Structures are given as C-alpha cells and as structure tokens.
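User: Design a sequence. Structure:
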C-alpha cells in the first residue's frame, strides 16, 4: 500500500446554495451573489495522494501529498471592466473539451431533422486527452520531484473506472512513466467500490469543509481556497484515512468481495 498513489477528480463550487453565518447584532450581513443558484461557478480538480511514510523513530519521510491540480485554462479578456483590462489573462474552468463533438442519430422527426439523421452534440466532460496530459505533465512530474527514491521507484497509480480515464497500457503514459529511473504503472480500482479510494473515502470531504470557510469571488480565488487546505491538512489526517481504507479492505474480504458492508472509521477501530 505504500507504493500506491490514489488519484481522483472532484468538482469544487464557488459557494454553497445556502450557508449559515453567526453574526454579532451590530455586524452587517455578508452579501453573496451569483448569476443563478442552479449554475454556481465550479472547477474540477485532479488530486493525487499516497500513504505517508515514516522511519523507525516516527520521523516523517514523506507526507503523501502529491498534489491537487485544477482543470483550467487562461485566455485574454475581450473588453475592459472594473476588474480587468482588455487583454489580461483570465482563468476559466474547463467545463468541456473545446471543439470535441460526437454524432448520434436523432430519435424522432423534427422541423430540422429526420429521424435517424446524425446530430452533432458537445461532450460536456473532460476527455481522455485532457486527463492524459494532466497525468503526464503534472502528476508524474510531481511524483518524480516528491517521491522518496530510497523506498523504491516502482509505483502504482490507482484510478477509478470513469470513461475519460486512460488504459493502463496507454503508450504515451508508459513512455513517460518509465523516465527518470521510475517504473510507474496504472491500474483500475475495483468497480462500484468508492471506498477503495482514500480521496472518496474521506480526504475530499476534509478539504471541502475547510474550503467552504473561505469566500472566493473569482476562479483564481477558488483555486487558492482549495489548494490551501490541501497543503494545510496534517499528515496525521491522511494517515488516518489510509487506516480507514485498510479496515474497509478487511470488511470486503469478510464479505467475500461484496461491497454491502458497514464502513468502520478509525474511531470505531480504536
């Protein structure tokens, strides 16, 4: 388990639809605005963590935090505003892969189409090319710079079974994963088993609870509000989630591979 890196994606929102504040009687109520409560600004992040490593004296050798990377792009603003000068690079989230489309047959006749005609629709998710580039250019580089080589260079990156995720035998990934003396492999986690990933198991919730204590107003501020708790969370917190993962694995074996078990947290183990 010490040489396995868990990766997963998650949407982080600018704010919650409803929020509770405790104010002094003379304190002004905070004002939060957005274009629509149904379409709150959001950014998808790819996080990568591994189990923290300690020496025999319990001195931390590796904190387990590989990194958390936003899917965003920067493009110049088109006109002046109170916040920007025309031409300033503005950060925008990648809500879809630009120019990527697919065709599917229409289901019924309409004034524009005859049933069965191929209709073009956008793919509203991150595709394999974007995910592959993030793995190679960000996750692998972070592993190369942070991983304690004295503990071995054979590493497994565990991903879930989402469609945009690349195949473990992807040629571009294999070429990049064998560089700099590392032997990095890609594998899928068991299907329908979110508890087998420490990010879904509890680490994302810990990040989100701290992120909601901030009040970002721009995409750049939202990115900082997510990266800050990722860096500030203690190594002990990440270690505890991995111990909970270990208890989940034990429960899965007791249930002969089934996932209908009650998740035991660290507190219930102790």
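Assistant: Done.
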């Amino acid at each position: 388990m010490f040489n396995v890196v868990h990766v997963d994606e998650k949407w982080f929102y600018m704010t919650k639809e409803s929020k509770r504040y405790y104010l002094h009687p003379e304190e002004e109520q905070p004002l939060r605005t957005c274009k629509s409560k149904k379409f709150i600004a959001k950014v998808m992040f790819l996080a990568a963590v591994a189990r923290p490593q300690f020496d025999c004296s319990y001195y931390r050798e590796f904190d387990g935090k590989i990194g958390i990377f936003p899917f965003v792009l920067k493009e110049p603003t088109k006109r002046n505003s109170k916040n920007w000068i025309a031409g300033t690079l503005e950060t925008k989230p990648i809500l879809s892969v630009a120019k990527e489309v697919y065709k599917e047959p229409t289901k019924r006749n309409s004034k524009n189409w005859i049933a069965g005609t191929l209709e073009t629709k956008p793919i509203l998710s991150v595709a394999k090319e974007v995910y592959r580039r993030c793995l190679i250019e960000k996750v692998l580089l972070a592993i190369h710079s942070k991983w304690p080589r004295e503990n071995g260079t054979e590493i497994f990156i565990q991903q879930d079974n989402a469609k945009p995720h690349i195949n473990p035998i992807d040629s571009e990934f294999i070429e990049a994963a064998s560089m700099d003396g590392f032997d990095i492999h890609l594998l899928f986690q068991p299907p329908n088993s979110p508890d087998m990933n420490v990010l879904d198991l509890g680490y994302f919730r810990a990040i989100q609870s701290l992120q909601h204590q901030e009040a970002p107003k721009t995409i750049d501020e939202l990115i900082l509000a997510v990266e800050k708790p990722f860096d500030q969370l203690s190594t002990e917190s990440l270690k505890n989630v991995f111990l909970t993962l270990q208890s989940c694995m034990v429960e899965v074996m007791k249930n002969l591979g089934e996932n209908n078990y009650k998740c035991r947290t660290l507190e219930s183990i102790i």
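Residues 235-254 form the longest helix (20 residues). Residues 97-104, 119-124, 266-270 have pLDDT under 50 and may be disordered.
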